[in-house]
Amino acid sequence: MPFEICSFFILMFNRSIRISRSPLLRSRTILPRTFVTNTHRLSYRLKQRNPSTIFKQSAMTLITISQSLDEAYTKHKVIPEVVDQFDTQGLLSIEYGPTELVTLGNTLSVEGTQEVPKIQLTLNSPTEDGKIESISENDKFILVMTDPDAPSNSDHKWSEYLHWLVTDLKLPHTKNEDGEPEISHFIDVKEGRELVPYMGPGPPPKTGKHRYVFLLYKQDPNAGELTAPKDRPNWGTGVPSSGVKDWIEKNAPNSKLLSVNFFFAQNEDN
Predict the structure, then answer these.
(1) Residue 100: beta bridge partners?
(2) What is the count of structural domains for the chain?
(3) Within 10 Å of residue 24's Cβ, how many Cβ atoms?
(4) Most buried among 8, 36, 120, 254, by the most CB within 10 A?
């Protein structure tokens, strides 16, 4: 399946979550149960209790995204330029607006991505192979947005450029109407410690497309109180191509990367 179709299905999945949270449909629609398997393929199961709902069971019983997340990351060099290979633990959904959704390498406008986005994590369903990271009520999380293409995708002297860093986030542990734990969680960034405030994309003219990468980590429980990098360029190290991976290794080495999402943006004067 082409990568563009993969992005389309992720877009439709995000919309299905929003629709299912409508008070009118909440009692009828069950959110997806199956997510990323140990082959890193996305598989969403949408079951209907009432065939008269907006989704027909015969038309959308199972949506399978055959394009693996690893392929998306490696195609655009998020792996290995930003992070090393890792086991995806869920889908990190980023929404700037109804039509401004981050879908693994789509292009969004600079103007439409200046405000703090909504963040949602949909966890993998547990599997018998033990590759799913356990999440408890006491766990904290780190949210990052970073640009590995500063000042341009061919010149990384300012890379990575830190756009956002929030630590000590918590996931709401709620149950659905069947008494089962929710697998989809909206993340309230106001409940965390914003070490570096959100800065929207600002790619300079004539520098091509920039990758803006979101990462969510399960925070190292032994890290103590984390502090902000000294500066945004190079994450304060002064070393070209330094970034989130170096900061995590130095400050919270036992943090576990759960999920990554990213988009492209460029200056109109290109």
Answers:
(1) 97
(2) 1
(3) 10
(4) 36
